[in-house]
Design brief:
This protein is of the alpha/beta class. Helices cover 67% and strands 6% of the residues.
Length: 446
């Protein structure tokens, strides 16, 4: 046991002392926060680019597009679009808009430019023309039928339904508001983190084994420790590196959320929102838009501390269990080959299984109660990702216990099998290993 602890310590300290580990551990949460803030800024930022667009209007529609603060539309109806569009661009126009005579039948116009037209500009022009034609058609209907208040009557038929979802607590019998969208995002983010973690750190285990094997360092190491002890020390040591990094990320993200709340919403008490506060009164006292308060209140009521604690504990188990399951297999692959080029034939099936688990998670997010969702959260190769997607929607205790037990038993069994491959493969050189050869190693009695 002491030898395994020494290997764990070596693997852990070797990696956490690297500058890349320190930089990534500190920088990643801030990079995510900056990326999110940048996306929000880009979404809210209005288009202020000044443009001048020539309009060739061959239809009978009067002024189908109107100039805005930054985009000017100049009508040049006396020219032919086909022959003059290039000349108009040379005169300094950003683009040329052609509205054909039979647009009523075609429902199509053309926006010609020597640059790629931005999506927002394209949508704005299209919507202006569509709205103009719709108003003309409505006016025509009014003229024929004599219903002067048609617009008002049509507007009165529009109904926006807000559907509130509430979850009944079996213990207290109380119902609280929840959000399926927020829970889906939480579950998928958890599954995605585990997917990335397994790929990143299990690959480190495999590469470490290959490196020690190719440098013949392993021959010196196995003279002092058993191959199985070496494998376990590597797996657990690198697992602790990932766990420490993850816990630091969680702490920094929580800190950033708290600081962000203090800056953006200094007068908002999250506990009051969870209890179902009067949002209208809170909006008046805090000078915050009531729609924003509704979003924050929905998040606060959905992600209460008790639920987050339960989910975090489940996440840590599947985080560690999924890694240990795959790390044992990746360590065996590293021991069986001489270089990374030869790993592809053995890694491909594992990569396919991981990809299938990830896409199953996307499907389960839409419907977490199917038979596929049940079996995918029980099978150990997919359960670390799929079960995390299901848990926010409520999983029976019996299914959760079964999933945990099967994942634990599978890890122990696969570690034992991988250890048999590792013991022989770690000292094998110059031989290209096949699946048939691996099966012989597993069956070999020591």
């Amino acid at each position: 046991m002491n030898k395994i602890l020494i290997i764990i310590k070596r693997e852990f300290l070797t990696r956490v002392k690297k500058k890349t580990f320190i930089v990534l551990t500190i920088a990643v949460p801030f990079l995510f926060a900056a990326f999110y803030a940048f996306l929000m800024w880009m979404m809210l930022k209005s288009d202020t680019e000044e443009r001048k667009i020539a309009v060739i209007n061959q239809s009978q529609i009067e002024a189908p597009v109107k100039s805005t603060e930054y985009t000017t539309y100049e009508y040049v109806n006396e020219v032919d679009f086909a022959s003059e569009k290039n000349n108009l661009l040379k005169k300094g126009y950003y683009a040329v808009l052609h509205i054909p005579k039979n647009i009523w039948q075609l429902n199509k116009a053309e926006l010609f430019s020597d640059k790629q037209v931005p999506m927002d500009l394209k949508s704005f022009v299209r919507n202006q023309i569509s709205d103009k034609i719709e108003r003309i058609k409505r006016d025509s209907v009014i003229a024929e039928t004599g219903i002067s208040d048609l617009d008002a009557r049509l507007a009165a038929t529009k109904t926006n339904i807000q559907l509130k979802t509430l979850k009944l607590d079996e213990g207290s019998g109380k119902a609280k508001e929840t959000s399926s969208e927020i829970l889906s995002i939480l579950g998928m983010v958890g599954g995605m983190i585990i997917y990335i973690f397994i790929l990143m750190y299990c690959t480190q285990v495999m590469r470490g084994v290959i490196e020690e094997k190719s440098n013949r360092i392993v021959e010196v190491i196995v003279s002092s420790v058993k191959p199985f002890q070496l494998m376990m020390g590597k797996i657990v040591g690198i697992a602790l590196v990932g766990l420490v990094q993850f816990l630091i990320w969680i702490a920094l993200i929580v800190l950033l959320v708290i600081v962000g709340q203090m800056i953006m919403m200094p007068n908002i008490d999250m506990e009051t929102l969870r209890q179902g506060a009067d949002l209208a009164q809170m909006a008046n006292t805090s000078n915050i838009d009531i729609d924003q308060l509704k979003v924050v209140s929905n998040i606060a009521q959905t992600l209460d501390p008790a639920f987050l604690t339960t989910y975090l504990l489940a996440f840590l188990f599947y985080f560690i269990g999924g890694y240990l399951l795959y790390a044992a297999l990746f360590a065996a692959i590293g021991a069986a080959v001489d270089n990374e080029t030869e790993t592809q034939q053995f890694m491909t099936p594992l990569m396919i299984v991981l990809a299938v688990a990830f896409y199953m998670g996307l499907g389960v997010m839409r419907n977490p109660e199917t038979s596929m969702a049940f079996w995918a959260s029980i099978i150990p190769f997919t359960s670390p990702i799929v079960m995390l997607v299901r848990i926010p929607f409520g999983v029976p205790a019996s299914e959760l216990i079964a999933s945990i037990a099967i994942l634990t038993g599978s890890f122990i069994s696969l570690t034992w099998l991988s250890g048999k491959i590792y013991r022989i493969g770690i000292l094998m050189y110059g031989k290209k290993v096949t699946y048939k050869e691996l099966w012989k190693w597993i069956r070999y009695k020591h």
